[in-house]
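Dehydrogenase, Streptomyces hydrogenans. Tokens?
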Amino acid sequence: MPTAPRICPLCEATCGLVLTLDGSRVTGARGDRDDVFSRGFVCPKGAAFPQIDGDPDRLRTPLVRENGRLREANWDEAFDTIAARLRPLIEGYGPDALGIVLGNPNVHTMAGALYPPLLLRATGTSRLFTASTLDQMPKHVAVGLLFGDPFAIPVPDLDRTDHLLVIGANPLDSNGSLCTAPDFPGRLAALRRRGGTLTVVDPRRTRTARLADRHLAPRPGTDALLLAALVHTLFAEDLADPGPLADRTEGVDQVRDAVREFTPEAVAPACELDPGAIRAVARELAAAPTAAVYGRMGSSTVAHGTLANWLVDVLNVLTGNLDRPGGVLFPRSATAPAPRPAGPGRGFLLGRRHSRVSGHPEVKGEFPLAALAEEIDTPGTDAPGEGRVRALITIAANPVLSAPDGRRLDAALDTLDLMVCVDPYLNETTRHADVLLPPPPPSQSAHFDFALNGFAVRDQARYTPAAVPLEPGRMDECEIHARLVLAASGMHGAPPSAVDDLAIDAALAKAVTQPHSPAYGADPKEFAAGLTGESGAERRLDLMLRLGPYRLTLDELKARPHGIDLGPLKPRLDEVLKTPSGRIELLPAPLAADLPRLRAALTAVPEPGALQLVGRRHLRSNNSWLHNTPALNGGSNRCTLQVHPDDAARLRLADGAPARVRGAGGELTADVEVTDAVRAGVVSLPHGWGHDRPGTRLTVAAARPGVNVNQLLDGSLLDPLSGTAVLNGFPVEVAPLD
Ligand code: SF4
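Tokens:
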């Protein structure tokens, strides 16, 4: 049987797969042993690639709404409709009448990386909402303020560290996030084999926690308090030692003052942890030859998410582990711009604009996805430029399930003047579309990880062309995006390559003026003429590789189908820092201003018997995307409410029986799973479920729909600095259904 390599697009680990092909059908998938990064690793999701790729529910042609019903249409008709209806709305009401929602799968496609920035620029809208404000925005804000660049995210040097402290992450099930590492389980096992230590902080005894030398299970939402106590202990016991970072860091003494009252004893009642255990973690961290502190969802999607993410890197700095092998390091992606000379930069600004209804500050050009519904359904003045979202473009996004209070958003989407969706499925969100544009299955698209290589634990570059040709009637995903840009910008009818040519021209016009760029002083036209590639997207990839720090080319990547290894991560702090001071700014003003809120949390101890809800990941799941795959929806991947045995006995909840869960945004019914894997006072429901709405085409998911945990939220609980929804650690009431 013929085979083809394909980088797996199903989670952030980016494993290399070898697909087995029968004509244009994918019949098998296994780990690619020759892949320079993943070395043959594959998980159940990757193994299910053929089922995911060949899902009969995938849409094959565009859908256009006519007389209230969606019908199949051809591509020209679909784009004609968009051009005819979208431009008048933008011209009549201003660019902010258009909202754009980007879902998390965009980081797993080339099109999702290359074209949405052009769509934003072409339409001029400032109404951008992405999955980041349901996930990782606290990390962007924290590193933006610390290092001056919201994308300068240091990742743990997994393969060399002596001590890994994991907070609110479960990489054995997620396979890692903001830390691209194929075979995370194997890398953690190797850490243990070489005598290293793993500490896990999580209110659940996850698969990762079970592997740990030490597991702390604090009350959810108190990670920032715990981290502040760890920082306090480093200072109190004279263990803080930034080493060579001391000369490149300002604000160390101010941090010492800022955490003075967060003693282990002071945070212990709120965290419900033993102060001795907190001190022990701080001492082990300081004593380890090298150590890395890594936090993710559980410490981000909480009320103090930005403070927690800031404190993670404060610990990495104070223990001297930032930017050194075995600590946390900044990856160097092959398509990142070549580094500029070291020196002060412009820094990172928050709140340059505010949202229309609740006045949420803009963060990284985005508004909170939790505020999308109110931006649509809150009446405006009808005046041009008043800013009510009247038209929406969603790309690979399902916010009806992924954002708080899906019912309100569901109703709001019905009131839009126009909704355009790029999505392979008719799902809970796209069922509201006026025009639905389905990209082809992943086997029919080329792949390069523009975003995820920037978070990888080893520098490398891999490109896989489409494994099979496009089926008749399908349109290449990059062409769909390019045509959408044209239709939305008033250039409808121009060739899609015009979009890529404009992007190349703009990038080169800048690069030729930058002394640190490989294109400095070149003739832009000549440079562009030298680019290779069979499509606009390939030419843009070739350009980014040539302008990148390794000066690779697309031809070089194509000649090495299992990738090019660029070596372990290397110290490069000077290249990264873009703060106004040119140094690490350890206590930025916006974070200092948020500390009184954390101090107030010291005494915010819940009533006896109160319950808090946390989410959870499953190896066979990824947000809302994969529930329509028979091999992944079932077995232990179930949407159950996990309850500790003590709470179950107290509340008379029986294992397997339905329970009513009530939160500020609504209530739902879920089957109880009694387990001591959650600590007492905590219940857990996974997210991404709730596939029971009419009008979708998700046969497998609808047969086993689960419940939408985000319906328990009303959208009002946010981390104020990042606009990120509080999806973990919020209060709920639970009772037997009858
Ligand atoms: S770990 Fe992630 S990238 Fe690797 S095979 Fe599984 S889903 Fe794919």
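The chain is about 30% helix and 15% strand.
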